[in-house]
Specification:
Elements lengths: L2 H23 L4 H4 L5 H9 L2 H6 L2 E5 L5 H14 L3 E4 L4 H13 L6 E4 L18 H4 L5 H17 L4 E2 L24 H17 L3 E2 L1 E4 L20 H8 L1 H8 L4 E4 L19 H11 L5 E4 L5 H4 L6 H9 L4 E2 L4 H13 L5 H17 L13 H5 L2 H14 L1 E4 L2 H4 L7 E6 L6 H7 L5 E6 L5 H11 L4 E7 L13 H11 L4 E6 L16 E4 L5 H11 L26
Amino acid sequence: MTTTKKSFIYSLLLALNFITVSAFAQKESYIQSLNKQNHWVDSVFKKLNRRQKVAQLFFVRAHTNLGQAYEDSVATVIKKEQVGGLVFFQGGPVRQAQLINRYQKISRVPLIIAQDGEWGLGMRLDSTISYPYQMTLGAVQDNTLIYKMGQMVAYDFKRMGMQMNFGPDMDINNNPDNPVIGYRSFGDNKYNVAAKGIAYFTGMQSQGLLTTAKHFPGHGDTNTDSHFDLPLLPFSRERLDTLEEYPFREAIKAGISGIMIAHMDIPSLDSTKNLPSTLSRKIVTGILKDSLGFKGLIVSDAMEMKGVVKYFPNGDADVRAFLAGNDVLELSPNSSRAIKKIRKAIRKDEITREEFEAKVKKVLAAKYWAGLNDYHEAPLNNLVADLNRPAAKELVSQLSDAAITLLKGDAASLQLNPVVKTAIVSIGATQPTVFQQDLSHWYADCRIFMINKNESASDVKSLLAALKNYGQVYISIHDSRKRPQSKLDYSTDVKQLITELAARKGTVISVFANAYAIAGLQGIEKAGALIVAYQNSDDLQHSAVKVITQRLKPSGKLSVSVNEYFKNGAGISL
């Protein structure tokens, strides 16, 4: 084939791709679609009996890492109950795509397949890309990068045969001790949280993916995890209106397709004792639907969580969530029991026929908007390669570069003398880190040291003695936990080591951990230079070394307030 012919074919493919993307970009949003009669929705609705209509409101749990018996049990629920959707959790991409194809074949009405993808498929699936956590993205100043991430995540979901992402998280994390949100939030500034969340979900929706802002009216200022108990939100209505609800109001204005309700006790909004917000008609219908004018899908948080079933067991929570105004009941502990109870409530006229039918049609309209009226199973060929395509990996690198935040220092204090004897110390690591490997190429006379997070006092003392022979020291602090909390789980001796090293002249510290962790490291602000990278990823370690070696100008701004030294928005641009 001649070069000219190859060039023509390549140009044609690009043009066709542009036409396809532009066509979807011009498609009306899900919210807009609700204003028009939909013949497919009406046709499907008429074919369903009442039990099947109720079942359309239920999304049940699915896994690919729990064995064949579990997979078969989900298939039985689909056949028997004809539920509206599935929520997939841990597993692998090929196994999950195969299982989605299997489950869709046995469902009379195509299923909405949903998953938590706050940082992409990697939040749940192995062998897939994880984009930076939302706290990391909160530091990025170019929101078009986050919009592009939304587009990439949408491609991944659709490539897998999924139609809905339970994301973004639009909670304002203004409580450093929050055990369940933290790094999942874009930060503690309501304007930044709103802007980042909107960039993310509009990117996803532009490619035909249903999205869900969570957890209304805001789960950011609590020290209780609603998976295990019912959190209390003791704030005034005015405070909630102006702060917690702000990102959700902005998301509604921007056309978010779905909002997830949190399980929280909020007396200022509903004084009923121990009533989770998910079960409150005053909150779900009165505030979200009526006051804020939200027309899209209202999704409950998982109905199996202790925060909702603690005070309303045995299916009572499901019925109350339905009557409160939720359209989708996610992960009921017993969908069969819940469907029966809801049918009884309908027979007793506890909800109007019009409201019930509107819920079902909203779910069916979501299926139509996502393309399930013309369902095609996900092709398995080249699936893993497609999900790990070079363009996606490059975007992760770009986001990491854009997030790196220089809290203290300048060019001279960062890139120390290349010929001076240099120690490169990784703390919280058990083997040489990417940071150490990258940085060691820039210093002719250097040595790598590693300190475990629970290193003994004698080993810490030995390291301090050894480092006296080095003219300059680079420190990297790592949190290797799957869920990086606001406090490092380092021993007292290791924390004291950081304090002593920070006070030394010629010390540069890079923190690959939750930004709040800085507050628990006494004296770290005395370091000659301080970089925060928010999480322990290879890409962010590469980015930090680029900043140190003057190949990248840091542009990130701190997404949360850490302490009196480092407030939200801090960040030095060289």
